[in-house]
Amino acid sequence: MSVCIIDYGMSNLGSIHRALEECGAEVFISEDPKDLATAERIVLPGVGAFKDGMKNLRSRGWIEPLKQEVWENKIPLLGICLGMQLLAEKGYEGGENEGLGLIKGSVKMLEPKDQEERIPHIGWNEIYRVNDDPLFEHIPDGADFYFVHSYHFIPADKKCILTRTPYCGNFVSSIHSGNVYGVQFHPEKSIPTGFQLLKNFLQV
Amino acid sequence: MLKVRIIPTLLWKDVGLVKGVGFDSWRRIGSVLPAIKVYNTRLVDELILVDIIATEEGRPPDFKSVADLSSECFVPLTVGGGIRTIDEVKSLLRAGADKVSINSAAFKEPAIITQIAKKFGSQCVVASIDAKKGTDNMYECFSHSGTKATGKSADQWAKEMESMGAGEILITSIEKDGTMEGYDLDLIRLVTKAVNIPVIASGGAGNYNDMYQALDKGGASAVAAASIFHFTEQTPLEAKMHLAEKGIPIRNTTIV
């Protein structure tokens, strides 16, 4: 299984690369959008701010080739952390910015419900299923994943929601629509459950 | 529910793992890579890796070594020591750091915190503060591995760091560091009350109850510790079991 990790200058690529290899994939990191054509799976990682993320994707020519692979060739795409947020139509980090629009919805800052809830949301927290999905096969409800973020994805269609996480009003921690998946947590940093999720993504 | 984090700190000098007392008398205690491999298998919550002499030597972080170490690290990794520019932050994130911790550079140019937050998001900037109680009972911040007095009080500086865009504060008591006498709870409380971002308590953990105190009485979101894990039989996993018995939420590593 050939997996392309998109390098748009916003990420810690080493650990997702190694993690996917550990899960049995043939992984290549690419700075050239043409490489998408040879990929059977695409991973959009990302640490950083929404605005800079989109700016980099645009200036490096990723947006159209990515949409083509996802929409026309139906290649499964997994967005991780900022990579999930960029799937949205709009983001509100650093002003209003247009996203990839691969899943309908917007990205807004987490809102603490009490003083105990500090932002950013950093650390291990649970995921609970909203809709069953092969991406979470063999991963029990209540499993802890590693999060490090201040913003969250609000999908327009509730059917896209795979899991929620109990913080700041039970935010959406993973989504799925068609062949596009997004997880707010870091599976590559969440052994062993995160590796199970990556293996599941290689199977979908 | 968000869990508290137990974070082993790896102090690093010339690729060796070191331990000091009060930010001084450093001793080599092993190599970094084997330590990271052990922590992988023990499912620790996060790791902090600090190059303690980069700033002193006036050189940038050792990106190559960070890349080598992080490729074996499957737990979240914060890297600090010697970071002065946004390009260095970018290189560290590319080398495999999930977060960077900034200390001395922020005193010289506080705007670096804002620049990093704007470009990479607040969630990846940890403002590291080393403090010590002065004669007037004020907790004063020291930069350059505890050698340079800054005249800033720990709580005011923590607030300033938060307003500049820091996503987390790592507060270390210089006097308690390496002593294993317990965290400086007054200092931790001072900082956790001053800010609304997560605070990592550091410096002085000698047993699991010290960690409980820093979380319960100090209000910290996470506890960092070095000597206790490197020099005693105590482990992050046992620490969590101890904390769980006292009702502190810890990461569930049994559900897999």
Task: Describe the fold and architecture.
The complex is a heterodimer of chains A (204) and B (256). Chain A has 204 residues and is of the alpha/beta class. Chain A has helices at 13-22, 50-59, 63-72, 82-85, 193-203, and strands at 2-6, 26-30, 41-44, 77-80, 90-91, 97-98, 105-109, 121-126, 128-129, 144-149, 151-155, 161-165, 171-177, 180-183. Chain A has an eight-stranded mixed beta sheet with strand order 2-1-3-4-14-13-12-9. In chain A, a hairpin with a 5-residue loop joins strand 12 and strand 13 (171-177). Chain A starts with a strand and ends with a helix. The mean pLDDT of chain A is 95. Chain B has 256 residues and is α/β, with parallel strands linked by helices. Chain B has one domain (5-245): Alpha-Beta Barrel (TIM Barrel). Chain B has helices spanning 32-41, 63-70, 86-95, 104-108, 111-120, 154-164, 185-194, 208-216, 227-231, 236-245, and strands spanning 5-13, 16-21, 24-31, 47-51, 77-80, 99-102, 125-133, 139-143, 148-153, 168-173, 199-202, 222-225. Chain B has an eight-stranded parallel β-barrel, surrounded by seven helices. In chain B, a hairpin with a 2-residue loop joins strand 1 (5-13) and strand 2 (16-21). Chain B is globular, with a radius of gyration of 17 Å. The model of chain B has no long low-confidence stretch (mean pLDDT 92). The interface between A and B is large, with 47 and 46 residues.
